[in-house]
Amino acid sequence: MQEVNVGIVGLGNVGSGTISILAESADQIALKLGFRLKVAVVCSRSVAAKSLPDGLDGVLRTTDWRDVVAHPKVDVVAELVGGTGVAREIIDGAIAHGKSVVTANKELMALCGSEIWDRAIQAGINLAMEASVAGGIPIHAVLREGISGDRVIALKGILNGTSNFILTEMEKHGEPMEAVLAEAQRLGYAEADPSADVDGYDARSKLAILSALAFGERITPTDIYVEGIRRISPLDFRYAHQLGHTIRLVCSADQTHDGLILSVRPALIGQSTILAGVQGAYNAVWVKGFYGQDTFYYGRGAGPSPTGVAVVSDLMRVAREIRSGSPERVSPFAHERLGEYKPVSVRSQRRPYYMRFRVNDRPGITAALAGILAAKHIGLEAVLQQPCDTKHDLPFVITTETTSENAMCEAVEEMSRLDFLNQPPLVLPMEPPL
Amino acid sequence: MQEVNVGIVGLGNVGSGTISILAESADQIALKLGFRLKVAVVCSRSVAAKSLPDGLDGVLRTTDWRDVVAHPKVDVVAELVGGTGVAREIIDGAIAHGKSVVTANKELMALCGSEIWDRAIQAGINLAMEASVAGGIPIHAVLREGISGDRVIALKGILNGTSNFILTEMEKHGEPMEAVLAEAQRLGYAEADPSADVDGYDARSKLAILSALAFGERITPTDIYVEGIRRISPLDFRYAHQLGHTIRLVCSADQTHDGLILSVRPALIGQSTILAGVQGAYNAVWVKGFYGQDTFYYGRGAGPSPTGVAVVSDLMRVAREIRSGSPERVSPFAHERLGEYKPVSVRSQRRPYYMRFRVNDRPGITAALAGILAAKHIGLEAVLQQPCDTKHDLPFVITTETTSENAMCEAVEEMSRLDFLNQPPLVLPMEPPL
Question: ipTM of this model?
Answer without folding.
Answer: 0.93
